[in-house]
């Protein structure tokens, strides 16, 4: 759904223009006829100024003009007032349809609830006065018949059903009017593009007749009794639109002044329609948020009052220093917490990182020590081998060859271990093996030290991972809070689901329209077509920003326009809807996004 606050703001701007336009028409009627040319020029400037401001509104579904025509959303020219008035008619009807639709959706959701939910809404979600009335009714019926819950549930069901009926009838009338105007614009699209000033008068005559039919349809809603009573919030005066003069309807060529008067008459009718619907829908609209949750707000206000009184008692205004002491303690505690759990860990990580680089030249085992042990072992092996073999060996002989000599001598000495330990070479062979073991240990420690040096920075980063993950979690929570946008225009997962539901709604209404056409239900088909246009308008506004960001807007916009055109076959529209779901990034499900 769209944002209620933004829609209300747009509606207020529209009402402001309608009232100012009405006052302008009254002012024009006071002057004499010889001043009509001058006033007509001022009227053009006035309408142009409004049109420039209206372009700042939210995007809307374009007019069904031929694809080779200029976009009606371009810069306004003298000849574009035909497009201006047509766009304003459609936008006003769409705004009223949205207001009715969101209230209707609310009451339909309440009607689908259980009996307990309906009774809870009846008593607790309609304000303090409804709470007292509902409680009194419940107690009276309980004392009188003992079936208070059933009676209260029947009462709220009948009220909700009445509101749904009225809003559905209004939606039916407005959707049918929207479809007829849209179809007429599509029928005369070629003529509107070629010569807007010449083709606008016959179109205004048709729209004038559609306004009369709309007044009759809304009048039936207002006059039809619901549950034995007249419509709640209905008008005592029926809706009567201004009509074109018969002389204008019979003349094919209109003057510029007559066209301006007809356009002003259209805006007067839109003003009357808006005022009439605002009063009629006011009694059927859903309760405001503050009314639905008045118990929570009341408890919050009471709690805030008690807390304020308690704070006042401990404040310096009452001669107490408790609050000042609490503030000092809280400040000291906060500073201590930040120092112990934020500052010190960060400083430790920083010092650890810099200390790592400062101590890279130091280690548990250095290469020089290993080389010294290796040279000592080489000399021991060389001396032992020369004395054992009684021959001179070269200096570059390998340690492995000399070790083989030592091990062979060692094996012989083990035959008489005690004797050779005291008077043989067994003791020297053991010392050489200990030296070899020392060299192996030092070599292994050197390699381990190199591994530790290469991964010191990794260990330092590993020590900072808990703080990093905590910061990342906090960032994700803040991001989710900022992106908590459930409207179809939003960027989150719920907004994407809302846009896909709009696609489903459009496809369902296209099929309902085709079913009504096949069954010969012409008026119901117009209603379904109008509701389909309303859903297309919502989809158009929801996807424009996202599709422009991905470069898909040119194609997606044309697909939306094609789905709305009356002359295109239903099969092609369904195929286009399916392609939109599969191709465009802003309409893909979250799990299938690249």
Per-chain topology:
Elements: H1 4-30, H2 36-54, H3 81-111, H4 115-124, H5 128-144, H6 148-187, H7 189-194, H8 196-223, H9 246-250, H10 256-282, H11 289-292, H12 294-313, H13 322-358, H14 367-389, H15 399-413, H16 417-423, H17 426-454, H18 456-482, H19 493-518, H20 522-550, H21 553-564, H22 570-583
Largest sheet: none
Poorly predicted runs:
1-11, 28-57, 70-79, 227-233
Distance between the termini: 26 Å
Please count the helical segments: 22
Mean pLDDT across all residues, rounded?
77
Rg (C-alpha, Å) = 43 Å
Series of H and E elements: HHHHHHHHHHHHHHHHHHHHHH
> What level of helicity do the residues show?
over 70%
Report the principal-axis shape: elongated
Strand content: under 5%
Assembly classification: single chain
Q: Could you characterize what this model shows?
A:
With 594 residues, the protein is an all-alpha fold. It has 22 helices and no strands. It starts with a helix and ends in an 11-residue tail after the last helix. The relative contact order is 0.08. It has helices spanning 4-30, 36-54, 81-111, 115-124, 128-144, 148-187, 189-194, 196-223, 246-250, 256-282, 289-292, 294-313, 322-358, 367-389, 399-413, 417-423, 426-454, 456-482, 493-518, 522-550, 553-564, 570-583. Mean pLDDT is 77; it is low at 1-11, 28-57, 70-79 and 227-233. 76% of the residues lie in helices and 0% in strands.
